[in-house]
């Protein structure tokens, strides 16, 4: 499985991905699922992937191979909307190319992408590209998307994340969402790849890899876990009617 | 959908069920999913159900109809293990009876049950009965089971519930687990049915229905939500390396 979150907020974008892939619990490996494209001062485009690893890697390879060619590509498109279209079209191309052989084998070749970033002259944008290649865009009402194993980590995002949350706060909220998911689902695992983009900076950040045992993340996890237990113990006593 | 939690702890048992059923988002209804059987001073058996409503209701009706007959039933079995077997066998009977007509229609008739309680001379016990009629038992390592939409509400149980948690604390933990689920999934909804059983009391509690707008639950939800936001804002500042 996989878990990726992306947020499009007033101050910029936050992306966090896990790096575990598995084909059964006895076949676990580490693969990066966060990819950065861009030209400093001009554009940043971040992709995150979930689903069939062969498919998502092929999509990314094809997207890379076509950079600096005449084919519409992530460095030539004029808008993020067009970037999401290029990603969607490439998903369709790979699904069509590989799907014939897999038909009837019961193997699910589908993959999905989050596509976010900023191109000079535009605001930031974030898209959730479905396995069928179509996509939806984030809005101030729904400023984040998840792909992969989304349920365990959704409650904290629904409670605490708002479009105007600052980037640091949003990143911590994402880290807590990952902590909840990693605790409950073995198929989501460390290290985490994260990238924070400040709106209008037009920088191409390298991002950061949070390794197992990273002292900041370990501290956050511990403080959060202890804090939750304290919160629970501070809740008012249960009415008698509940207990009889 | 449905969400039910049951806990088998040092001091007794805690059961909480939602009451929403749906056949599509435009066909929502309220049905109780927590059923109590027992004889004061002698036994308490609590059932919780998830899955196809026609199937789970048929199972419960058949179990009720057979009380006070020669058929092995929930008031005649000598152990909770036998009670779980009776429930499992009844699930198989209903699945077999109704399954033939449904075959090939794509309708999923399966249902699952949690079965917990105490029979005089035994300790408390809790079983998770699968749609196939077989079942597993809770242990001190894994003192709770969930059926239905379990993922949103699992992280808080994994973090805060232990076999030796006291019953009030465990009930509050379950209520928070329901709050997380209700916020994230429309198909899980109020009112909640809950029942707390104190070990060796051999009482047959009626349980309590937490209605929409219940002041205690509303207060807990608000305090929890505000507390989480405070916790998040108290986390240490993010290292520079994370933000660049």
UniProtKB/TrEMBL annotation, chains A, B:
Domain of life: Bacteria
InterPro entries, alphabetized: Ntn_hydrolases_N (IPR029055), Proteasome_sua/b (IPR001353), UCP009120_prtse (IPR016545)
Gene3D superfamilies: Glutamine Phosphoribosylpyrophosphate, subunit 1, domain 1 (3.60.20.10)
Protein name as it appears in the record: Peptidase
The organism's taxonomic lineage, starting at the top: Bacteria, Pseudomonadati, Pseudomonadota, Gammaproteobacteria, Pseudomonadales
């Amino acid at each position: 499985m996989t878990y990726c979150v992306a947020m499009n907020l007033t101050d910029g974008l936050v992306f966090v991905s896990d790096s575990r892939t598995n084909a059964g619990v006895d076949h676990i490996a580490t693969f990066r699922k966060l990819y950065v494209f861009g030209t400093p001062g001009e554009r940043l485009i971040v992709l995150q992937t979930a689903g069939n690893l062969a498919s998502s890697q092929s999509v990314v390879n094809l997207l890379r191979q076509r950079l600096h060619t005449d084919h519409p590509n992530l460095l030539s498109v004029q808008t993020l909307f067009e970037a999401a279209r290029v990603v969607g079209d490439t998903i369709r191309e790979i699904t069509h190319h590989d799907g014939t052989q897999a038909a009837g084998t019961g193997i699910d070749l589908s993959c999905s992408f989050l596509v976010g970033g900023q191109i000079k002259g535009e605001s930031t944008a974030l898209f959730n590209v479905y396995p069928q290649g179509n996509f939806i865009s984030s809005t101030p009402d729904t400023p984040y998307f998840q792909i992969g194993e989304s349920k365990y980590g959704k409650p904290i995002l629904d409670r605490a994340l708002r479009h105007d949350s600052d980037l640091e706060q949003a990143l911590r909220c994402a880290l807590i969402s990952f902590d909840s998911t990693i605790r409950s689902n073995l198929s989501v695992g460390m290290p985490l790849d994260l990238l924070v983009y400040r709106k209008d900076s037009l920088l191409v950040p390298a991002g950061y890899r949070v390794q197992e045992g990273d002292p900041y993340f370990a501290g956050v996890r511990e403080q959060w876990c202890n804090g939750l237990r304290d919160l629970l113990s501070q809740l008012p006593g249960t009415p008698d009617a509940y207990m009889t």
